[in-house]
Amino acid sequence: MRERNPSIVIVGAGFAGLGMAIQLKRHGFHDFVVLEKSRALGGTWHDNTYPGCACDVPSHMYSFSFELNPGWSRMFAPQPEIRAYLERTADKYDVRRHIRFGVAVEAMEYDEAARRWNVTTADGAVLRPRAVVSAIGALHIPKYPDLPGIDKFQGTAFHSAEWDHSHDLRGERVAVIGTGASAIQFVPRVAEKAARLVVFQRTPPWIQPKPDFTIPAPVRALFKTVPGAARAFRYAIYWALEARALGFTVHPRLSGPQERLARRHLRRQIPDPELRAKLTPDYTIGCKRVLLANDYYPALMRPNVELETAGIAEVREHSIVTADGREHEVDTIIYGTGFKVTDALAEQRVVGRGGLKIQEAWANGIEAYRGTTIPGFPNFFFLLGPNTGLGHNSVVFMIEVQIQHVLSCLRLLQRLGADALEPRPGALRRYNDRMQRRLRRAVWSEGGCQSWYLDENGVNRTLWPGHTFEFWAQTRRAKPEDYLIIR
User: pTM of the prediction?
Assistant: First the structure.
């Protein structure tokens, strides 16, 4: 492995980066380096360690198809178990020796004369690969709310993705701002410790019961010893999840059973009609991310917990004041306000051919051909790029499809004896226009809500608008006619 001039640089060692590294080795590409800013692999499953952190996709689906894990302890695996799975997988396929930990990438600039990328790291080193795979994902830059006085608060404050485990919440007055996927997992844990907990909700989420349970030892043994058992179970989960896409992508009316399930769950767990009204969404299910939880609603019923739905007017030194003038004195603020999803890509320092900055290429909104490549940036590949997220199934499936697409591009270069490729502008335009037409009819645009799926112009730059098998059929193999080949 040539350290300064590897053929390929992968940025990030989470699910996407590890999957790319493993498949490169399996297909005969051994000259690559993985750059990981953290001191350990795992990506979001390394960074997020808040109490109750777990996957909201069934474990047997939230894993690599080539490395099934018959030993998942639960239907929905907790964070430590997912991270351990990634650690074992990295060791099994011998990719850890390719990873440089604690190396943050500062900039990536294409050298047209040499037809290589200059990848500059925070320590000043420069690597010159022929290809770059950006596997940083979208859930790694914490998002904080823009609240008046937020910097004046003198108590303890942290984001759920940067949990302060040294801080003891027992006996404290705690405020949680946000009611998204992370918050509904850690709120029940915080409620058990805090003397008083106020949950500040802007928009109620649709919540369905979480079909979570311990997988019995005999079943785990069956998955391990009976050929095909674990894969058959995975297929069953896959098609059950795919069925949910009908209401999201075909027509919202098809989401009736999903909404009835969520309303029944709310009625059963919240007998108080006033509180139930505050927790009932006024938008079509699926417009925002549908959440799964069995203990969130009961946590809000605890005598030491209050749900606050009035907007936050300001944050003071030791309190939060709502729009109706109420002042809540708090010792600690926990932000469960998600991540900068679209900004995570647009804020990268990437310069392509002719000095084209990625911000200039995306002046009218982020987009990529097959969610993976963009014109003007030869041999630059995104994993979990624009419009590859999902609202109904496992993104690991999408990652694997994109990895196959990248490998197809690399094999195409080998076959043609070419140096680089990039998508033709016309191919990107046709692809994105067709996709956006579908997205405008989908629940995320027509469901009557605002979400992190949409950019500042209300355009969905995050989600794939159909079934995942459609993405597989269209994306796994690169079409030579859609690419500009550079020799």
Answer: 0.93
